[in-house]
Amino acid sequence: MATIRELLRVPHGDTVDLASVDPRSTPGLPDIRRPKAKAREQLSRVGDELAGYQERLYAQAKAGGTGRRLLLVLQAMDCGGKDGTIRKVIGRLNPQGVHIVSFGPPTPAERRHHFLWRVRREVPRPGYVGVFNRSHYEDVLVARVRGAVPERIWSRRYDEINSFERELVDEQVTIIKVMLHISPDEQRRRLRARLEDPTKYWKYDPADLEERRHWADYQAAYGDALGRCSTDEAPWYVVPADRKWYRDWAVAHLLRETLAELDPHYPPPSVDLAREKARLAGT
Amino acid sequence: MATIRELLRVPHGDTVDLASVDPRSTPGLPDIRRPKAKAREQLSRVGDELAGYQERLYAQAKAGGTGRRLLLVLQAMDCGGKDGTIRKVIGRLNPQGVHIVSFGPPTPAERRHHFLWRVRREVPRPGYVGVFNRSHYEDVLVARVRGAVPERIWSRRYDEINSFERELVDEQVTIIKVMLHISPDEQRRRLRARLEDPTKYWKYDPADLEERRHWADYQAAYGDALGRCSTDEAPWYVVPADRKWYRDWAVAHLLRETLAELDPHYPPPSVDLAREKARLAGT
């Protein structure tokens, strides 16, 4: 049976045509009755497994045995569900071993540096699970679509990103890049909910409507970024995300398959156990 | 009925005699059969409430309406359960709104600064729940017991801490300081478990045995710190922590009572809802 990683992975190379991926589809979920209930139930079980892997990853690094760490990069159109995914999936982990960073529009100070400068500073430490809520990919997405930099600049960033990510992989950072893929209709529904539900008013940003007008340009920019930067070392996955329960299920499985491959183990004792037991008994 | 805060709060002033608090007691838990099962069940429900408060606190700050934030300071003897408390209680919150910092022994660079320098940099931003795993209190605990600085230095730190915390309160930081109080026997049991359980070897640090020899000195140092720095603005609570299920229950309730008093609300809309709905329909 194909793994979820195989089903959702973007092939390296040409532009990806996002229109060919149905945002309401549920790849890898068995064809069953009540898939939503099933997916939620599995998420809970997989969440416990993730927490187990995370503790072993953390323990290994703490014992100095490895520099291994995980980095989840989340990208999406506005309302794509990045925050919800963090709450529902990353919320299953031990918060003490998690490093979450939201990359907003670069500040004036950040703009004076290379676009990767602020990103390098936030790479998770060994043993940690890092999450980028938006990332250096904004520099080939919004920066390109809204013309913040000329083509001469953004066009060379794909190679810069690939080099940067290769460096991270050399430092034992395992990278999982996920694009949460929603439809324009689903975005409208979610924006409308923010205007109708008093518990969601605070999420509404009028600037999102301006971005929405550039939907096609963003999809094209995503297509280039995903295709050109989905490498063997740092693959991109497209997760159909109109259905939140599938989105969470899929991201949890991507993490689980990746962590299972890393297969972290509790480290052996670093002390003479018998001797320490005797010392302890004497206190 | 007394609140958990009232039951566990340290009065301001003189040295606290920690020996007068039974680490196996369960103040505030109704006298019932199977208290452990009940406490765990309540923790789960209170956890959901905490997540609700947290979202409203975050939403308020995001809307710019307030600089309010929460800071939980956790202190304990080794094996006192700081990590477990974070996993079990703080793990109920949305990790994206949480800022956890572990303060280890100061680095040479940190030692060149005032002891509060590194702490100020980690104060949570508006809307966030910050957690200090150890804190500036180490500078009147280990620094005093192990003689890292002369009495002339550490003895004035209580006042410096009180001033610092008053500043934070002025910046709308609500401070909850919790000492997880275990017995020396319980510490021995937990240290032994780290020498007997292969999934816990990595937590064992031989230096903990050296610290353990100074138990009485630490209890005295805690007694001074708790009494002198339990102020109206930033109270200390002593949580009996030999029983992990009580510890988690109590910390969750301390947070809940504090957040209920803050009573954060979803902010009102910052836009003309009807106008935005019409704009959205036109996209």
From TrEMBL, chains A, B:
GO molecular function annotations of the record = polyphosphate kinase activity
Q: Does the keyword Transferase apply?
A: yes
Residue span, Polyphosphate kinase-2-related domain? 37-260
Give the UniProt keywords, A-Z. Answer: Kinase, Transferase
What Gene Ontology terms for biological process does this UniProt record contain?
Answer: polyphosphate metabolic process
UniProt entry tagged with the keyword Transferase: yes
Q: What is this protein called?
A: Polyphosphate--nucleotide phosphotransferase
